[in-house]
Amino acid sequence: MSRMNVNLAGVELKNPVMTASGTFGSGMEYSEFVDLNRLGAVVTKGVANVPWPGNPTPRVAETASGMLNAIGLQNPGIDVFCERDLPFLQKYDTRIIVNVCGRSTEDYCEVVERLGNEKVDLLEINVSCPNVKEGGIAFGQNPKALEAITKEVKKYAKQPIIMKLSPNVTDITEMAKAAEAGGADVLSLINTLTGMKIDINRRTFALANKTGGMSGPAVKPIAVRMVYQVANAVSLPIIGMGGIATAEDALEFIMAGATAVSVGTANFFNPSATEEVVNGLEEFLAKNKIEDINELIGVVK
Questions:
Q1: Does the structure show a pLDDT above 80 at 135?
Q2: Domain boundary assignment for the chain
Q3: Is 101 part of the annotated catalytic residue set?
Q4: pTM surpassing 0.90?
Q5: How remote is the C-alpha of 212 from its chain's centroid?
Q6: Active-site residue identified among 82, 101, 109, 129
Q7: Residue 263, beta-bridge partner list
Q8: 44-96, pLDDT tens digit by residue?
Q9: Which residues share a beta bridge with 239?
Q10: Cβ distance 250 to 228 under 8 Å?
Q11: Do 41 and 7 touch, CB atoms closer than 8 A?
């Protein structure tokens, strides 16, 4: 068997395949379809310091080769997460990555501090949340704000931190360098692209929020390009995501420079997508007589 293990900031994963935050709950819903033990890691839905109700409905709409969502990071909060979701995930032989969201730097730090004593392997910081104190621009769209929140979170974090980059910026490498300067251990990208859909019969927005995050196969070429740019701009390991539905998709990201990959929207139309990607990667390595998947990371220059 070829070696599938990859390393993210000192945390060893049995393979590079994980779930994308917000598309897999905390694994409970999918455990009937997927053997969670087969995954390199499970990334949870965003967790905040207090329960968030999310946005009004409708908040999901299909588009060509993708979907729009404006869920608004609905979640039950850190207390319920630690009591209910973490014990469930800890029963499996997979790494646990908790996605953290907040409306202010203090919110993020509170959650990160609470998770310091829990059996969690990495923390993914969702900086696509609007910064309420700065008038609603996302933390991840201003390099100075991104560097500052990274530095603050690092003060409280006992686990390595992954900064999840927003693609809704002019220069993704500038954001990656800001996160690196702030002390990030890993980067993940891309988050969703801002989109809109109009319901022509109702003559109104398809989503109550007007805009939503676009994800799915349609965004993959943009995501691959951004992962490639970031891999060549910083020296941090990268988790690549954006429209991955097959092992071939995952390999594009790995060859562009990603150490690991997240499968998101595909889980909705194929609940066993993550496991199929793991199997497909193993078959590709065997067929091409590649002994170690790490040989493929960033081979395209």
A1: no
A2: 6-55+72-194+214-296
A3: no
A4: yes
A5: 17
A6: 129
A7: 19
A8: 999 999 999 999 999 999 999 999 999 999 999 999 999 999 999 999 999 99
A9: 188, 260
A10: no
A11: no
